[in-house]
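Exercise 7. Given the components listed, write out the predicted structure of the assembled complex. Treat all entries as one system.
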Amino acid sequence: MDSPLLRRCARAVTTTHKHIRRRAATQQCRFYADQSDFRAAAPIRFDQPRAELLDNDDRSRGRRDEKPEIDLYSLRIVPASPSYFTATPQYTDDLLHLSTLVRRHKLLPHLPQGEAPRIAWKTIDQYKTEKAEPVKMKGYNALLKLLKELNYIHPSLMPEEVKAALETFKRDVQPYLNVPKPLTVDAYGVSIAVGRRKSSSAKVYLVEGTGEALINGRPLTDYFGRLHDRESAVWALKCTQRLDKYNVWALAKGGGTTGQAEAITLACAKALLAHEPDLKPALRRAGCVTRNPKRVERKKPGKLKARKMPAWVKR
Amino acid sequence: MSLQICLRCLSRPSAPSQIRLVPTTTNKQTAAFTTSTPHAAAGRIQVSQMKPKRTGNKPTATRPVRVKRLSPKNVPQRTGRPPAPGERKALRKRVVLSNTNALEVQGMPDLNPWQLFDKSMHGSVAGLPDDVVDPLRVVEAFKPTQGWSLFRRPATLVRSETVEMASWVQEVHNSQEGKTVRKVLFGERGSGKSVLLLQAMAMAFSKGWVVVNFPEAKDLTIGHTSYVPLYRNNQLYIQPHYTASLLAALPKANPILADLRPSREHNLPISVPPNISLARLCDLGKDPEIAWPIFQAVWSELTAPSQPDEGEGLVRPPVLMALDGLHHIMCESEYLDRDGKHLHAHNLALVQHFLSHLSGASPLANGGMIIAATSGSNKAASPALDFALRRNEALASSPGADIPAWDPYRKIDTRSLKAMDGVEVWRIEGLSKEEARGIMEYYAKSGMMRQTVSDTLVGERWTLSGGGIVGELERGSVRMRI
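Answer.
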């Protein structure tokens, strides 16, 4: 069957009534296909001469035995899915499919609230582009709700069909798979962490010890003349009262004095968390955990600096 | 009699100044008849007339159009007596040794050189006895930047370096053949080098030695005092006024000089009686014209062999010579020679005198100590000295260790390198945790530090002071009251 309309019919064609000949006025004209003439073309046989050169009898003889004649005039093409009659058939199909899955697997064990794997689902624009259908936000949200419910099924017991269905709705690149490498304490008892502030960066090697600190090979007082900078560099240890329990070896570069001190703060805190992860709330309260995102603002055209405007002139 | 007038404001002082540290050649006479304030006196020039009128009220790129300027009538008049010459310097250099608001630490022992070897003294703070504080003040061993004014009475921590120093003092004191200990102290800023010098001087004073101190080597080379080439010697220059002030301080700090008399004749520009005491001889040296020959005479007397059997006044105690700020005498000075080139510091006679003793070229017949300390905060650029310190330290640590070598393609001051040949160097590091605890307990007992001294606090302050650097420890505990 050649026409696309006929190709999409999954069910067999049914004829509801007997073969009735109805000739319309158009049938008078010889250009319009007669019922008897309307039949599927025979497969092209290259060993034979062309069809128009054959007699009618030859043609009809070949077709009658192979397949039953389909009365295409009275043929009722039924769509595979009733959602054909909606504005968004593929969306409706998806929605129904997911609802079925949810209902079918409702009794499977689910993960606790908040512990489901974090997935980046397709955005509504991506979905609409893919399906080429005018899906509304409300409708798509309903779809997402079902997806999230299915995502809560325990991964060890998730059925294959659910997995396959979820895969089709996931974004190609999953940003949540990009997790940072967890900081560990190596065989020598050293943890390494990096911290940044403004344009400085620092790498800190933290190991259990007696409270010595060396920055770029120089003692703390030699590197930071200001007491404030010294205190902030080891703030993570100072606020948790562990200054005499660890030794710090830091390599700092870039920026200025205070920037390097603050970079060492962050790096030291991260390295300390590798040794003692339970200190995270205390360090967060002390302000050592968040990377300060401030940077120097760029100069803009028409201004003297980032914000400073030249002197206002009346005319 | 000339009246002193301030050249800036043409005013006269209403009272003579009391304190003078640097010898001046001007005669200080004040106008006794003055009853009015200098500003009310006639001939006073308005400040506005002296200063050039400001022009340039024009708008520029960064300045707004209208600029408000004070009109000449509204300039505030300076009231009060302007300070006399030398008063500002005296105020700047004054050292306060007592704070009556601090608590007295009960049971604090005194710094007794004979008791320092007792293990119980190590790590505790010992006070300086009064008979030692006065001579130390005269030789300017106390520095204004140190924290003496925060506590009730001057006291220092007995650290391991103090005990070592005391052992050397004991060795020199007990030796018969005149042992000389020559050391250069170096280390980080605030690590306690100057205070170790002070402790050595205190021990020397209490043992009855003669102490000669150069509190700031910078004063020798900065070019602020007079200098004169030695007669028929183009290489060596003497500093008359500095020598005179040194000689003036010598008998005041060392009363033992009053009991000593010369053992031989000296060729001096003035005639001196034969039985003159060394103290009186030093007093004669207050005149800058004859200061240098008298200094040489006094020094030769002090380093003459002791003759206790000959008679009284010929016993010679050991001599301690100390200098702070070694970097300044290991480079070029600010003085100029006849060709306008800078003199090397080693061309100054006093510097040469000290360095010849430090290198061991001039031995001390009766023994003694020659110590020099570098300064972390007041440093001149002397790559030769820095290299010499590293080299000497490497040589002393182990014979086979890598000894740093100077890049032969770079210039170096060879005179300074030669002066440091064979000189023992001593790196002063931070305190140990026990010593840090000792001094923090002293701070707490004095009431200057309010926290309870616990192991955590000691550890914290020890780390934050860069491994127990005393100066930083004091700054963090006592000066910065958070």
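Discussion: The longest strand of chain B covers residues 180-187. The longest helix of chain B spans residues 160-174.
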